[in-house]
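Lab notebook, bench 4. Still working through the backlog of constructs that have no structural model yet. Next entry is a single chain of 629 residues. Request: give me the structure tokens for it.
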Amino acid sequence: MEEYYGYAGSILDVDLTTGRVKREKLNLQVARSFIGGLGVNIKLWYDLVKPGVDPLSPENAVIIGVGPLVGTAAPGSSRVYSLTKLPVNGAVGWGGGGGVNFGCMLKNAGFDHVIIRGRAEKPVYISICDGEAEIVDAGSLWGEGIGKATDTLKEAYGGSSGVLAIGQGGENLVRFSMAFIDKLSTIGRGGLGAVMGSKNLKAIVVKGTKGVRVADPKRFKEICSRLYERIRSYPKRKDAQRLGFLNFMRIVPEESYLEFKMARVACVGCPIGDKEILQIRKGKFKGFTKYASAFVNTLLPYLYGGLGYDECISLTDVLDDYGLDMFETFELLKFTENLYKNGLITDRELGGPPIKLNDYDSLKEWFDNITYRRGFGDVLAEGFKYVLERYGDKAGDFAPCVVKGMVAYQSVRGPVFSKTFTPFELGMVVHPRGPASAPGGSSPLYFTFGRPLDWIKRHFDRMGIPKDAQERILTEKEGMAINVGRLTKYAQQFLYICGSLGTCGRGQINRFYSLETFADLYSAATGFEVSGEELMTASERIFNLEKAINVMEGFTRKDDVFPEKWFEKPLHLDYYEKVEITRDIAYGLLDDYYDERGWNVEKGIPTKEKLIELGLKDVAEDLEKLGLL
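Model written out:
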């Protein structure tokens, strides 16, 4: 009988069409090769789902997974990952969310992964409790927002249970709708909510008491103790705990934030706590309480219309409750407003009052129109890919920067302004699923500007970037001291290790982990002795498999296109703000990215040799049969 350490040891396979619920063993060899969590999700997809399925058909699958460190004492290890074919662009893409209670409870219920396929005849939710799972009628929950649905399930299963739920946006198949974990963490940018809605799946609720065993408790405890000591001695720890994301992004005065802060919230196992409960204490929304993944996220409406902070908090709560992606929603409304003002949309097409981005009531009405597909809201619910195709080239002049059907939300032209060109900006273009969460991986260049190269090199060492690769990254090109194209590979690989183990990718926790620490923790937890280099190879295997899956869906270099508006003045700058990133420089960095990955630069896809080197010979053979290599 196989012993499982770190892993719960089971996969739950649910067919909503037939009502079958089946428990299968986790293959330990697969787990070793793909680490767990995100990595095993991708491997399961490759084995189970044929290319070409419609994202909103019963044949599409949703795979939920947690890594081997989730549910253990490792700091900040609760991360949950989803994988599905995304309705917004047809890519097979993941979503990562802070696990709050859900991640830990899924492991304690006895499962590492959940596979969901088919379509229920009527609304249902999936209940997973201590090794048992069932499909339960959700008729009373259908039509409710994420907040009420989550509260209802927690009341029924206990406050320590975990809930992953969709809102009315997902129910009505809004293509950019998401799901929420414990009404705090977003998961599945690109349309997970719509996929769950297409399956008549309202939620998944988990609860368990089984615990998670580690192979070497003494060694594991010693590693965790050292990590906690480092976190306790971190000079900015108290500020991070007091101010959350505002400690890193001072976009509003500290006193403005403290006016609304009610409590700090942490995922299970997080010693920092970057989520929060906000309360409006005066004005027309006095007494209103908002659960938020970060205060800064609630301020997006302010960027569009100068609304008050209290109005912003209330409006983002409406969006979150519906499950709508706020970046897609606001940019679609801004786009529509411009089309209307320039005569490309008529009053008859609009089917309602003009959009006013500086008016609370107008925005609330249009959130409703999109969610319930009323009037022109039915068009907007299909997302940018559809709207741009419908209105042609003239409409493109008024569109935001869109990559692979989604808003490139962080850039010199994005709603989140960033003047420097980092792995995040490049990552939105090169990542198989486009500008979803953390497309450029985990990089020391985010939220820092012009730090000395010695500081950069220390982070490169922490991430386990090989010395020869560091030399290539730091070889001057076009006057730039850091080659973002070559760095992006390793930033992505480090994040894929986090995602597969289950640790948080946010900087408040990520900064305390190194590649060697990950290898030590994984070895002590699972009993599989691995080196940092072996983890990096596994991570590269995972990324290449994900890319290959998307090559089978038709994605190649032709889709890795920078928005033309990025090349209008003012341009992005390099990390030291000495070089403007022109079109030629950007595409040169794209070539370097493919080259660093060992891919076919002309096609922007893995080579046969690279796939075989990573132990993916069967994948290479499948691509050859399809004539794609």
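Notes after review: The chain has a mean pLDDT of 95. DSSP finds 26 helices and 21 strands in the chain. Flag for follow-up if needed.
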